[in-house]
Structure to design on (250 residues):
């Protein structure tokens, strides 16, 4: 059994921008494909490809945020793999629907006999709390393993072994706690990411999803800084990291 104390975020996919030959933009400054795509979409609205104001991409997108014209950010989609988060955390995450797509590990098909469990951030560093928590998840996993074995015997009359295992696991998973680790692929456009991050990186967010959101923000800031440059990561009064944003609900 693995015990997890922090999430892992991996970038899986980024936008590819194919600039049309007949509508070339007079680009200024460095930028990623996703940033160029957002700028191109914005300039198309006013046919300002000649860049009369001589703005760099960073300056152009900063003005977009100031004006609240976030719709052009919806064209740039980023896909992240999230690991080391609990089922409790993923249930919070998937409440964000507009602009998001999800593909999550299925407990009906995946054997959780060697499942990992995520320590709640509120318990980290307290030996007594961690020991009590560990005893509970260990007992839950043992109960799951036993239930799968018993259910496999109960349904041994089913010839299809895959279907038999699915029936056993889908019932036995009811014994696993919310702390069970899950893996989930999350796709969202830049505007949707910004909305989720503004809400979940704040000090009022639940601690685990806040930690996950800050990890996502770091990945996205490294990948497309000009789309997320107005976010600031800082250490909150509770000692954990949080983030604030300059331009709200772009």
């Amino acid at each position: 059994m693995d015990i997890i104390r922090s999430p892992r975020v991996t970038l899986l996919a980024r936008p590819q921008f194919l600039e049309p030959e007949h509508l070339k933009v007079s680009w200024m400054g460095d930028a990623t494909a996703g940033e160029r795509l957002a700028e191109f979409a914005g300039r198309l609205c006013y046919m300002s490809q000649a860049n009369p104001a001589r703005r760099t991409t960073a300056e152009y997108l900063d003005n977009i945020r100031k004006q609240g014209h976030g719709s052009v950010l919806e064209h740039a989609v980023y896909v992240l793999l999230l690991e080391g988060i609990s089922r409790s955390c993923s249930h919070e995450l998937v409440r964000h629907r507009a602009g998001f797509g999800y593909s999550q590990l299925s407990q009906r098909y995946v054997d959780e006999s060697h499942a990992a469990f995520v320590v709640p951030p509120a318990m980290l560093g307290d030996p007594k709390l961690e020991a009590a928590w560990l005893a509970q998840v260990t007992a839950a996993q043992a109960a799951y393993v036993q239930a799968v074995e018993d259910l496999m015997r109960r349904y041994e009359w089913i010839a299809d072994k895959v279907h038999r295992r699915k029936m056993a696991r889908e019932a036995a998973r009811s014994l696993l706690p919310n702390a069970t680790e899950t893996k989930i692929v999350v796709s969202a456009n830049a505007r949707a990411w910004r909305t989720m991050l503004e809400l979940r990186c704040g000090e009022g967010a639940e601690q685990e999803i806040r930690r996950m959101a800050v990890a996502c923000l770091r990945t996205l800031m490294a990948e497309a800084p000009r789309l997320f440059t107005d976010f600031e990561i800082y250490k909150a009064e509770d000692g954990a990291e949080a983030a604030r944003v300059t331009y709200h609900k772009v």
